[in-house]
Amino acid sequence: MILTDKSCTKILVQCDCGVEIIEIEKFDDCYILSVLYSAFYIKQDKLVSSLKNKLKMIWSILRGKEYRLFEIILTRENINELKKAIGKLTS
């Protein structure tokens, strides 16, 4: 499913399973590409698995590492290259 807002500054592309969403947003002169996850599906882990993942995230943060950064900032030229690459991929 692909959704856009009325002002055409944001596009949401949802995967067929409904868990992940790719968001493309125009911000000033740049474009921000983000990967989002449905909170419902992420919270479905069992207690041990959920606790393990949370401790892993906390440990990474305490060690000063970036954890789960899912944003890419693209210039106008890069977004045009991405459009061309997607066009070639689908042809």
Overall description:
With 91 residues, the chain is an alpha+beta fold. 38% of the residues lie in helices and 32% in strands. It starts with a strand and ends with a helix. It contains three helices and five strands. The mean pLDDT is 78. The protein has one domain. Strands 1-2-3-4-5 form a five-stranded antiparallel β-sheet. It is extended.
Structural class from helices and strands? alpha+beta
Share of β-strand residues: 25-35%
Distance between the termini: 20 Å
Give the ordered list of helices and strands: EEEEHHEH
Mean pLDDT over the residues: 78
With strands numbered from the N-terminus, the spatial order across the biggest sheet is 1-2-3-4-5
Q: Tally the helices: what do you get?
A: 3
Q: Could you give the count of β-strands?
A: 5
Q: Which residues sit in consecutive blocks of at least 5 with pLDDT less than 50? A: none
Helix content: 25-40%
- Please state the CA-atom Rg, rounded to the nearest Å: 17 Å
Count up the domains: 1
Sheet of most strands: 5 strands, antiparallel
Taken from the alpha-carbon principal axes, the silhouette is extended
